[in-house]
Specification:
- By secondary structure, the protein is mainly beta.
- It starts with a strand and ends in a 6-residue tail after the last strand.
Length: 612
């Protein structure tokens, strides 16, 4: 508090105004009187200011205006360290009384005095003599006592509780309310939440609880100014700042505690305003009785109440065995109609019909398919080969839609003898083999027309299953490509969509990896994804490629699990044609290497029906 030559008295938030003493001092027309400690006769050396009005400043401070007498500095010096008291009539003076307000700390500029106010009024009791009614000192102290205790009561603690933790009334003893830590995990510990503890205390301590107003000196470092405060568990607070944090949700009980007004790890401040949430059955227009699993809430318009009930009962069903939404009378009609239906199988083609109570489904099996092979061809193509026949020579079609190619000493594509690992329903196998030459290769590609597939005319798919015999090493190295390509040799693909096993990173822009890699290339510009799936020689591996109808996206699957999706460097247009292709090529060493292939499947469903 400063009395200055601009005839203003300024009281900060943490001074007189914040502790409520202003209700005594800030009274229009009251006088603050300071006496000379060396001469207590205040009529000889008076220093007084008559308050005329007060106002709230920009930052929450209180400004008191009044008239200040013109007294020289020599007189001011007599007031340093003067103790100020609060009199029963509301005046502050140097005359001793039972309530100590503060002291004059120092002199400022000419015409100014600095006064330090106590955080709480300090009460010194007079000697108790005679009857209680004679204790004027005691009576004055009681009159001056800050009266917010009616709003923020003192409670007895049932356990150790820290400052800033939420409490609820858990009982009472005599005239003392008993406070315990509030918690949102039960109705009993949340519904009676009424405030936040102002100081840390232990069991049986009597501590003030803030039920309405500011609480300073709490840790709000994890909050943002303006955050809502919700009740957590074991008395703890939850600072809620949408959408970064989450407020409690059911089954937790929702209790609003206040708002963060200052963020600080030590001197944080919150404004306490408790508002308990409501259970559904606590609302004035909800009458919920005993309920069971799957009860629903419905509106009883006759009584203007929400009530609970069984959907089965509300719909009037005949029994709960009839699991549906039909009433009893509707179930009767439904069952009668169903029982009256007669099934016939007249004819071998055409659509099924329902006429009256007769359902006719033609016997398609006995009459064969109603769609000709030519009609099916207009919708797309589908090719599957289980490799049950013996492969033919290099560059020659086997007459079934694919061509073998190989080069090098003993390189070949031959029918596999039954691999040691196979299922009972795996019958035909081929074995592309590199031979005993360091540049030997072997493989197959689809159709005798070379690169004949154009993307963008409909969804395409390619699938096969392979089993490796011996894995690639730095001394006996080879690579494998499986999918779509445009080469019938060991050369890198210019245009293609394929899986590759290239342990040495020898071609197609791959990296040296023991895992499957996925490649799309258009005009030798490539997109590469190295999967997390390692090649092994102990189990069959299913490889699938799915191309969307527009030819703009490719999905790669290993054993039915998606491992990569490419949308760049996909072949397009008539100059970037591709064909189904499988190849193994030797790059280092002269020991023959091969892998087993169980089947090959590829298909396309046209976006637009092909004229036939």
């Amino acid at each position: 508090m400063i009395i200055s030559d601009n005839k203003k008295i300024k009281v900060q938030n943490y001074g007189l105004y914040a502790i409520g003493i202003n209700k005594v001092v800030i009274v229009k027309g009251k006088t603050i009187i300071l006496a000379d400690p060396s001469n207590p006769d205040i009529s000889k050396y008076p220093l007084a200011i008559t308050l005329q009005y007060f106002e709230i400043g920009e930052y929450g401070e209180v400004l008191l205006s009044g008239t200040l007498p013109d007294i020289n500095t020599n007189i001011y010096s007599n007031y340093v360290n003067t103790t100020l008291y609060l009199a029963a009539n509301g005046e502050i003076s140097a005359t001793s009384s039972n309530v100590i307000i503060g002291t004059i700390s120092k002199l400022g500029e000419t015409g100014s005095i600095y006064i330090n106010f106590n955080v709480e009024p300090s009460v010194s009791w007079g000697a108790i003599t005679g009857t209680l009614s004679d204790q004027t000192d005691l009576q004055a102290a009681l009159d001056a006592k800050f009266d917010l205790e009616d709003i923020n009561p003192v409670c007895k603690l049932s356990e150790n509780i820290s400052k800033g933790q939420a409490v609820y009334i858990s009982g009472a003893t005599g005239t003392n309310m008993i406070a315990s830590k509030a918690s949102n995990d039960s109705e009993s510990s949340s519904s009676k939440t009424f405030g936040i503890l102002s100081y840390t205390g232990v069991t049986n301590d009597h501590i003030k609880v803030i039920t309405n107003g500011f609480l300073e000196g709490v840790d709000t470092s994890t909050a943002t100014i303006g955050d809502f405060i919700w009740l957590g568990v074991n008395g703890n607070l939850i600072f809620w700042h949408y959408p970064e944090t989450t407020k409690p949700v059911a089954p937790a009980h929702l209790v609003f505690l206040g708002i963060v007004t200052r963020v600080h790890a030590v001197n944080g401040e919150i404004f306490v305003k408790v508002q308990n949430g409501y259970e559904l059955d606590e609302l004035h227009d909800v009458a919920v009785g005993d309920y069971v699993h799957r009860d629903v809430l419905y509106r009883d318009v006759d009584n203007n109440l929400w009530k609970n009930g069984s959907l089965f009962d509300l719909m009037g069903a005949a029994s709960d065995a009839q699991d549906g939404y039909l009433k009893a009378s509707e179930w009767t009609i439904f069952n009668d109609k169903q029982n009256a239906i007669t099934l016939t199988t007249t004819g071998t083609s055409g659509a099924a019909t329902f006429d009256g109570s007769t359902l006719n489904i033609p016997n398609y099996a006995s009459g064969g398919s109603s769609q000709t092979l030519l009609e099916k061809a207009a919708l797309g193509y589908e090719y599957y080969n289980d490799f049950l026949s013996t492969p033919t020579l290099s560059g020659t079609s086997d007459g079934s839609g694919y061509i073998f190619f190989f080069s090098g000493t003993s390189a070949s594509v031959v029918a596999s003898t039954a691999p040691g690992i196979r299922a009972s329903n795996q019958h035909g196998f081929i074995r592309p083999t590199t031979g005993s030459q360091s540049t030997g290769y072997a493989g197959l590609y689809g159709g005798s027309g070379g690169n004949q597939f154009l993307l963008g005319g409909g969804a395409m798919t390619f699938t096969t299953s392979v089993l490796f015999n011996t894995l690639s090493t730095s001394t006996e190295r080879y690579r494998v490509t499986i999918g779509y390509g445009d080469q019938a040799t060991s050369a890198a693909e210019v245009n293609g969509i394929f899986f590759t096993y290239d342990e040495g990173g020898t071609a197609n822009g791959t990296t040296a990896s023991a895992n499957w890699q996925c490649v799309t290339t258009a005009g030798s510009v490539r997109t590469l994804t190295t999967s997390t799936v390692a090649i092994n020689n102990t189990a069959w591996c299913k490889l699938s490629i799915e191309i969307n109808a527009a030819g703009t996206s490719v999905a790669f699957y290993i054993d039915n699990t998606l491992v990569a999706t490419h949308t760049t460097n996909i072949p397009s247009g008539a100059v970037q044609l591709i064909t189904p292709r499988v190849n193994i090529s030797k790059t280092i060493g002269v020991t023959s290497r091969f892998f087993h292939m169980d089947y090959i499947y590829y298909a396309q469903t046209y976006t637009t029906t092909k004229p036939v």
